[in-house]
Amino acid sequence: MFGSLRQRDDEGNGTMNMPKDEVWDSETAKAYDTPGTGMFAPELLRPAVDRLAELAGEGGALEFAIGTGRVAVPLSERGVAVAGIEMSTAMIDQLRTKVDESRIPVVVGDMATASAPGRYALVYLVYNTISNLLTQDEQVECFRNAARHLNPGGRFVIELWVPELRRLPPTQEAVVWQSEPGYIGLDTYDVVRQCVVSHHITFDDDRRATLARSTHRYVWPAELDLMARLAGFELEIRSADWRGAPFTADSRSHVSTYRLCDR
User: Fold this and answer.
1) Domain locations along the chain
2) What sign does the CA torsion over 14, 19, 25, 29 have?
3) Would you call 99 helix, strand, or coil by DSSP?
4) How far apart are CA 234 and CA 125, in angstroms?
5) In 3-state terms, what secondary structure has residue 144?
6) Please, how many CA atoms are within 13 Å of residue 144, restricted to the half-sphere of its CB?
7) Considering all CA atoms of the chain, what is the largest pairwise distance in Å, rounded to the nearest integer?
8) Which residues contact 150 (CB under 8 A, 6 or more apart)?
9) Which CATH class is domain 20-164+218-260?
10) Under a CB-based contact definition with an 8 Å cutoff, are residues 57 and 81 in contact?
């Protein structure tokens, strides 16, 4: 379900208290890029870039948690002036192997609080990354930070998965969301804390398994809309994917576009 990797601690509570440089270290940054496959597959990446370029228009775009530039680099190649905020210097170092600071400037900091120079037509946050903020307060502050960076009428776009709690029968805590040769994706839910741990189990040719875990706070679309309202946004459109497919009760993810209200 998630593209970000975090190792879980010995007590099974995730890595909420790990230093950020340990969560997003150089090893993770180098493993993040998979050109042409996975998150970088053209059929996934191209529709996202097309839609974001359309929304940015002639204005600039700011990516929260820009990472290694999976979206920012091709968006910049489309002629959009892109800047970013990123907490991990290792991820920024990986980005710098592709483009320099003059082309895509990046501020080191947390997407809920850090400030980038200027104002933008578009702020965007993709691939479930808002769930890396592990409290409701942090997620609300992320919306408020987006509002601070936008021109009047600007847009904030979030790509996020829909929690699959309907697949959990009583007493069961886990959902297998992907199973294919060499890989199993498994989510375990704590519905009291509104927390999910995503387990990524990879098998090599020698039948040895590698396990990575990522800890997240899941958000229902309705809760996300309320966060947006608290920050001065209104929902403009919600689709099931970047191509604009209708969002339904059976959609597993959504792309939500919020417009900053006139103030």
Assistant:
1) 20-164+218-260, 165-215
2) positive
3) coil
4) 17
5) helix
6) 11
7) 61
8) 119, 120, 121, 122, 123, 156, 260
9) alpha beta
10) no
For tokens 């929260």, name the residue: 64
Which tokens belong to 24? Answer: 């997003």
Please report which residue ranges of the chain form alpha helices under DSSP H. Answer: 20-23, 26-32, 42-56, 72-77, 89-95, 136-149, 221-230
Q: What is the DSSP letter of 65?
A: T
- Rounded-to-integer distance, Cα 198 and Cα 176, Å: 10
Percent helix, percent strand, percent coil in the chain, to nearest 5: 30, 30, 40
**Cα 48 from Cα 92, distance rounded (Å):** 21
Element (H, E) at 193: none
Nearest to 196 by CA among 174, 175, 217, 210: 217
Residue 128 to residue 254: CA distance in whole angstroms:
10
Helices (H) and strands (E) in the chain, counts: 7, 11
Torsion of CA 44, 47, 49, 54, to 10 degrees: -170
Q: Tally Cβ neighbours within 10 Å of residue 211.
A: 12
Both tokens of 62, joined, read 């700011």
- Which residue type, as a one-letter code, is found at position 30? K
Rg (C-alpha) for the chain, rounded Å, is 18
* pLDDT block averages, 10 residues each, the chain of length 263: 36 41 63 72 92 97 96 97 96 94 97 97 96 96 98 97 88 89 92 92 87 92 98 98 96 97 76
